[in-house]
Amino acid sequence: MITRRKFSSLFGLSILGNSLKSCSAGVMTDTTNSFVSGNLVISTWRNPTANQLAFSALKSEDKSLLDAVEVGINTVEDDPKDQSVGYGGRPDKNGEVTLDACIMDSKGNVGSVTYLKEIKHAISVARLVLETTPHVILSGQGAQDFALENGYIKENLLTEKSKLEYDEWAKEMKYEPKANIERHDTIGLLVKDAQGNLSGGCSTSGMAYKLGGRVGDSPIPGAGLFVDNEIGACTATGVGELVLKTCASFLCVEFMRSGLSPQAACEKAIMRIIDKIGAEKQQVGLICCNKKGQIGAYSIMSGFVYSVTDNDSTQILEAYSYSL
Ligand code: SD4
Hints:
Layout: H1 10-16, E1 27-28, E2 40-44, H2 48-59, H3 65-78, E3 98-104, E4 110-117, H4 122-132, E5 137-139, H5 140-149, H6 160-170, E6 187-192, E7 198-204, E8 225-228, E9 232-238, H7 240-246, H8 248-257, H9 262-277, E10 284-290, E11 295-299, E12 305-309, E13 314-318, E14 320-321
Parallel strand pairs: 1-13, 4-5, 11-14
Antiparallel strand pairs: 2-6, 2-12, 3-4, 3-7, 6-7, 8-9, 9-10, 10-11, 12-13
The structure holds N-hydroxy-L-asparagine.
C-alpha cells in the first residue's frame, strides 16, 4: 500500500537545497517509507491503462514479467493520442516517425531497437531481439528488416494530427524542445513481482522534430532504462541527450546499490545532470523502485507525473522536482 503524505523530500531539502512546490496535477508523495511487498507497476506519465494491463499480467500465473512490460507498453504504442510513442508519435525533421525502445529482464538480458520506422510495436521487436538474437541493439533498416522477417507488417505511423502539427512546425523549422509542453510522454514502465523480481521497458518516438538518424536515451541500456535484479530498476523520460550524457538510469540504480533509498537515488541522479550539464531549464524525469517495492521519482522541472499500481489501486502522482 502506498501511503501519501504531503511533506518535502528530506533528501532534497537538506542535502540538495532544492525547491519544492505543493501539488497541483497529482498527489505529491513521499514513498521513502512505503513498501509494496506484492506486485507493483510504475510508469512515467499518466498511464493507468498500461499499468493495469501490466498488473493483470503480473497476477496471471502463465505470464512472465516481460509479458507484463510488453502488454503495458503495447497499449500506449497503439494509442494515437500519445504523440510521443508508437502510432501517432511526432515525426523527425524529415517528417518520418522513428521509434526507439528497450526491454530488460531480471537476468540482465536486454533487447533494444533504435530508429525503427513503420513498425508500431517497437517494444515487442526489442523483446524479440532479446529473446531470439545474440545481440542487444538493432538499428534502423536492420531493425526494420528483422521485424519484417518476424512477421511484423509496415504501417504508416504518422497520424493526421501529428502531420498537421509537423506541417505547421516545418514552416519555420525551429527546433526548440520544451519541457512538459511537448508532454514528453515516453513510456518507461517498471514491474516488480511479489518475490522482488524486476523487469522494465521503455518506448518512444523520441524528441519531436529531431534530426534524422538521432537516437535518444530510451533504447540505450543504462541511459533510458536499467534493471539490476539484485538492487532495483530505473527508467527516464525527457531530454534524452541529458540522460545519455550521465547514464542516468544506471547511475540511479548504482546510488540504490550504495544504500540510498529510491527517492534519494532519483534525486541524486537528477542533481548529477544539473551539476554536470547545468540543465535547469530542461526536463528529465526519473522513476525507480527497489526489490523491496520502495519507489522514487524526481524531475528537474515541475509537472512530471507518474503512475503507480499496486494491489489496492492505480494512482497518478506528481514527482518532486528541482525547480518550480
Ligand atoms: C528521447 N527521452 O528520445 C526521449 C524523449 C522522451 O517523452 O522522453 N519523451 O530523448
